[in-house]
Amino acid sequence: MTTAPREIASDARAAARGTATVLASRVAIAAMGWAGSVVVARSLSADEWGQFSFVFVLLGLLSVVTDLGVGRVVLARLMDDDPDEVALTASSFVALRTLLGVVGYVVAVAYVLILGYPSEVVRATAIAGLVVLFATPGNALSVLFQSRHRLTYVAVAESLGQAVQLALTILAAIFAPYLLVFVIPAIVNELVALSWKSRGVHRKVLGVRPARRIEVARWREMLREALPLAIGFALTIALTKIDVLMLSLMDTFDAVGLYSIGYKFSDIMDTMALAVVAPVSTLLVAAWPARPEVFRRRSRDAGIAFGLMGAVAVASFWPSANAVIELLYGERFGQSTFAAQLLVVAAALTAPVLLGLFLLASAGHQRSYPLVAAGGLVLNIGLNLVLIPRYSFEGSAVATVATMAAMVVALWIVIARVVPIRGLLPVRAMLGLACVAAAVAATGQFVATHTPLPWPVVSALAAALVLALAQPLRLTDGIRPWAILKARRG
């Protein structure tokens, strides 16, 4: 007897296995990406590194255009019991995302041309923009795998692509250390990942294959339902990337490069949060609206997971930030330490925002999100306009932390009002974890500065102390820290 798609999507144990696999792969991918960034930063001049960083931040910002929140809306339809309906939804969705990738590429090139960026930046954007063309359909295929909790296949595809990118980056540094050459490995990365995912779909790893026919009429319905979420998602991406664009216009590319070092660390936290929230969103969609208690439990478990991840990241990174940055990138990047510390804090705050966004989409209340995101964007732009002229990239980092803190509070107030389930976020536990992280980070900073203990030891002890304190202080909502991702029967 064939298992129904919604029943597959409701399998918490499959979600836990997928989460663990994706989390491990994302850590590996982040490590390889990190190593690649070290190679590039050490190979290019300060201005070239700033230009390189700017181009990829700009391309990241284009998910505003290439995603539009459609994947989160389509996810529920991919759980339909009719395989023909699922196949048509899949083919139409992949085609739509591919078209949006083309639009995103055109927007990127037009942006740097219209605003008169240097010719090197224009050429790098035109070449690196091919990443968008390949990544967009690849991300669409990932949603198909997500709907069946087959994320291991996605993890392998993306890990393989990143490994190829790292190898090509090292070769470029040895034989042709130029800006335009360094953008090519990222394109190959997306090509490898797309090819592997396409192979899995062709071999029916999902149990279903997209139809050969594309029903363009479905695009209108997908976009109409996704519009509120698309607006909110676009504003969220904008408020997390707009600071780099503003720095490039109000300061120098050297400042952009220094600031981007901090993002290399905060991106690891963002990557881990996305790895956890993807399968969680599948469980939330499957539980809504028939099983409200399961919906609540999944949300609280994810909140605790994000709280612990953020607390450990901040407490372990804060005291060792300067040593790590100078070791990896060189002494000239040491001045970016404070900005990097703040951006890791901002990343810890971004995780509950992501959870709230996916929760609203799962419960069909995505129309409530755009106003919150718009407020965050306005606040971030306003703070950057005031702080960049005075404090350069460190001012941008302060603006980012303040904005994300305001977003967390505003978003979860909205959720409490529109979703008819109470206690979706373990507020007391997360506030307690934040206090523990702050205290341990401050202690670690003092120990690193005034004792001969090596920074790796200080960081390891800080991480262990956060986990050791979480259980006796009852900050894990009854869940053991080492079993945070273990699914409980719903």
TrEMBL record:
One Pfam family of this chain: Polysacc_synt
Domain of life: Bacteria
Major subcellular site: membrane
Matches recorded under InterPro entries: Poly_Biosynth_Transport, Polysacc_synth
Keywords on record: Cell membrane, Membrane, Transmembrane, Transmembrane helix
Recorded topology in the membrane: Multi-pass membrane protein
Coiled-coil ranges from the UniProt annotation: none
Membrane-crossing residue ranges in chain numbering: 20-40, 52-74, 94-114, 126-146, 166-194, 268-290, 302-318, 338-359, 371-391, 397-415, 427-447, 453-470
Compartments (UniProt record): Cell membrane
PANTHER family: O-ANTIGEN TRANSPORTER-RELATED (PTHR30250:SF11), PST FAMILY PREDICTED COLANIC ACID TRANSPORTER (PTHR30250)
Protein name as it appears in the record: Oligosaccharide flippase family protein
The species this protein was found in: Rhodococcus daqingensis
